[in-house]
Design brief:
281 residues, mainly alpha, Farnesyl Diphosphate Synthase, 14 helices, 75% helix
């Protein structure tokens, strides 16, 4: 069996490979907290990959959930993700992690297997809670163990803002997977049609629809930032950085004339460094 340090290093490689933004932000944490964050991220990434890349995702996700239940009872599943289970066991030992948040994440990923179109913003928010706000709730006991209750609503809001940002950034990528997260009620309101979406039309109707959702995301970021002072200093900068770095994606998309069909917009390293300097300064 792997030792804990090696397991954490493998979790670190997962986040390095898949999310440079989060890695850059949370690298600022003290070692124990940082490692626990890597373990939680690896859990979320593995669930996400099962759904997006699994050969039999329904079966694999069910097996993963069963393994998680066994894990909670004290056994380490000897599967391809053993490194993650070993690291997560250490994280659960050190921090009072909320089991329900992990199950909510699995539930959210399962939604992607059964639901490919969304009809209302409320549905989008419910989905976003399960796949993104759940992550914030997983991390809270690590980042701010004494302020979990005070930060709960802010963590949920941050997850909603980030996931809606993901949706607005990944319109084309999601279409390639036959998923449509832009809600039909908004498309109807702004007279942007499914055929327009499928043809990657960027017109005033699309921009108005996109901006409607972007304003909602920005409202969630503001709500999250209101309670940021409750985080201990060691965690405040990484969490605030992740919020500001992610919010900046919306600004980048605007600068790129809303091109979200054929390009994946991102915050450059130079822009990331400027944001981080503005926080620490």
């Amino acid at each position: 069996m792997l030792d804990v340090e090696t397991a954490y290093l493998q979790c670190e490689q997962v986040i390095k490979q898949h999310s440079k933004t989060f890695f850059k932000a949370f690298s600022l944490l003290p070692k124990d907290k940082k490692q626990a964050v890597w373990a939680v991220y690896a859990f979320c990434r593995i669930v996400d990959d099962i759904v997006d890349e699994g050969h039999a995702p329904h079966v694999e996700l069910q097996q993963f959930e069963m393994n998680f239940k066994k894990f909670l009872k004290g056994s380490i599943p000897h599967d391809a993700h053993e490194f993650m289970w070993i690291a997560l066991k250490d994280a659960f030992k050190k921090y009072q992690l909320e089991e329900a948040a992990f199950f909510d994440m699995i539930k959210g990923q399962r939604m992607d297997l059964v639901k490919t179109k969304y009809y209302s913003m409320d549905e989008v928010v419910t989905y976003s809670y399960h796949v993104a706000s759940s992550v914030g709730l997983m991390l809270l006991p690590i980042l701010a163990p004494d302020k979990v209750n005070e930060l709960r609503e802010g963590a949920i809001a941050l997850g909603l803002g980030m996931q809606i940002t993901n949706i607005l950034r990944d319109v084309g990528e999601d279409l390639d997977r036959d998923r449509m997260y832009l809600p039909k009620e908004l498309m109807d309101r702004y007279q942007y049609h499914v055929r327009d979406l499928e043809m990657a039309v960027i017109n005033p109707a699309f921009i108005t629809l996109w901006e409607h959702m972007a304003q909602e995301a920005e409202g969630y970021y503001l709500k999250a930032l209101e309670t940021m002072h409750y985080y201990p200093l060691s965690a405040r900068t990484p969490v605030k950085a992740s919020a500001l770095l992610y919010r900046e994606i919306l600004t980048i998309i605007r600068k790129k004339n809303y091109q979200v069909f054929t390009e994946k917009q991102f915050v450059t390293n130079e822009e990331k460094s400027m944001i981080l300097e503005s926080i620490s300064g």
